[in-house]
Amino acid sequence: MKCCMFVAVALMSLLITLASIEAAGECGRMPINQAAASLSPCLPATKNQRGKVQPVCCAKVGALIRTNPRCLCAVMLSPLAKKAGINPGIAIGVPKRCNIRNRPAGKRCGRYIVP
């Protein structure tokens, strides 16, 4: 009887632990849509390669690269970015256009390579 009680308690503990774990995606615990929304000041720069990149955009991109560089790639390739008309080939160059030194240069982002 004690053995069955122990197994039941252990099983309940395991189920509670599994239920409390949140799946982390490319952007960690931040939903990708929230990460994309934080980069909204960059929208004009992702559509026109010759367009000026706003300082607020550079600050947001720099912060995201420091905290989670894979998230930036995930945002650029997301369905939300596609709906917003973002050109990934142009968007991939925003960190360079911002003169961000610690950008993941040479890393792949889908079929693109970070300049």
Question: What are the defining features of this structure?
Answer:
115 residues, mainly alpha, two-stranded antiparallel ribbon, 7 helices, disordered N terminus, Bifunctional inhibitor/plant lipid transfer protein/seed storage helical domain, DIR1-like, signal, Bifunc_inhib/LTP/seed_store, fatty acid binding
Approximately how much helix is present in the residues? Answer: 40-55%
**How many extended strands?**
2
Uncertain segments are 3-23
Placed side by side, the strands forming the largest sheet appear as: 1-2
Q: How widely separated are the two ends?
A: 65 Å
Shape: globular
The Cα radius of gyration reads: 20 Å
Largest sheet: 2 strands, antiparallel
Mean pLDDT: 81
Structural class: mainly alpha
Give me the strand/helix succession.
HHHHHHHEE
Q: Strand percentage, roughly?
A: under 5%
Tally of helical runs: 7
Structural overview:
The chain is globular and about 30 Å long. The chain is mainly α and 115 residues long. α3 crosses α4 (69-76). It has a two-stranded antiparallel sheet with strand order 1-2. β1 and β2 form a beta hairpin. Helices cover 52% and strands 3% of the residues. The termini are far apart. Residues 27-109 form the Bifunctional inhibitor/plant lipid transfer protein/seed storage helical domain. This is Bifunctional inhibitor/plant lipid transfer protein/seed storage helical domain. Residues 1-19 form the signal peptide. InterPro entries: Bifunc_inhib/LTP/seed_store, DIR1-like. Keywords: Signal.
